[in-house]
Amino acid sequence: MSVRELVVLGTASQVPTRQRNHNGYLLRWDGEGLLFDPGEGTQRQMLRAGVAAHDLNRICVTHFHGDHSLGLAGVVQRINLDRVPHQISAHYPASGQRFFDRLRYATAYRETVALTEAPVDADGVLAVTASYTLEARRLSHPVESYGYRLVEPDGHRMLPGRLAAHGITGPDVGRLQREGTFNGVTLADVSEVRRGQRFAFVMDTRLCDGVHALAEGCDLLVIESTFLDEDAALAHEHGHLTAGQAAAVAREAGVRHLVLTHFSQRYPEPEEFERQARAAGFEGELTVAHDLLRVPVPKRR
Q1: Angle 72-81/97-104 helices, nearest 10 degrees?
Q2: By the number of CB atoms within 10 A of the CB, which of 147, 237, 288, 298 ranks highest?
């Protein structure tokens, strides 16, 4: 059975607190693991969450501020120490290549793993697999930043009544699914489209077109809400969102499950983020993230 879940490794913005580690998020998607924004301490948080280096297939960095990337050095070295047997791809803003190089080779170690560098320099598709297409969109932050979106290909849901009407049963159903036609009956005649699942990861940014494009139709949206609404001017100045802004994006995009994260240390009570998100009109499932939380991707519609 496939596993699709978000493992939250850290939720603090700028500096860690007693309760919150720097950023870090692992998306388990079937047999793959995508690690987003490994901030300082991510390697230790992985241990606490039961995430191994062997679980990683991709590393996606939104931008090169420390709370989103300082843990990259430790993660890369752990991948090599554990001799992960498969290729791992790293996506990050191309303009930050010098920072990636410094983090990848921060200290001496033996390289044993094929780490493929795949820098991002424009909106578009980064990778296509059998399970998903990975896309990037430019965000609005003082340094170049990209958000990531994962889209599962659409499938088909077989309709028993139509199959019976055409006399298709048993192994012939599987043949029709594989080949697209059987005895003059097409897949479209006996099925309906099952929309693929969608996930998006949106970190440090002001409101911009990229935010809305990433969030559109998502089953699970992980999005920063560094500030509360009363500090909206401060959020805009520093290139961030408020809880209400993030929730309004999710409402307009038809998001099913909204995960708020990346909280400023100035706010000790997370309950207010949920209250402001609801006040903004978001009525779907809502999670105010905390470290080591696991959030399942919603079941297909």
Answers
A1: 50
A2: 147
C-beta separation of 158 from 173 below 8 A: yes
Q: Is 67 a catalytic residue?
A: yes
Produce one character per residue of 11-47: b if its CB has 16 or more CB atoms within 10 Å, e if not.
Answer: bbbbebbeebbbbbbbbbbeebbbbbbbbbbbbebbe
Encoding tokens for residue 69? 């990337």
Q: Phi/psi of residue 196, each to 5°?
A: -70, 155
What residues form DSSP beta bridges with 259? 222, 287
Here the tokens at position 84 are 């992960």
Question: Is 0.70 surpassed by the pTM of this model?
Answer: yes
* pLDDT, tens digit only, all 301 positions of the chain: 479 999 999 999 999 999 999 999 999 999 999 999 999 999 999 999 999 999 999 999 999 999 999 999 999 999 999 999 999 999 999 999 999 999 999 999 999 998 999 999 999 999 999 999 999 999 999 999 999 999 999 888 888 888 888 888 888 888 888 878 888 888 888 787 889 999 999 999 999 999 999 999 999 999 999 999 999 999 999 999 999 999 999 999 999 999 999 999 999 888 899 999 999 999 999 999 999 999 999 998 7
Q: Of 30, 37, 55, 67, which one is the catalytic site residue?
A: 67
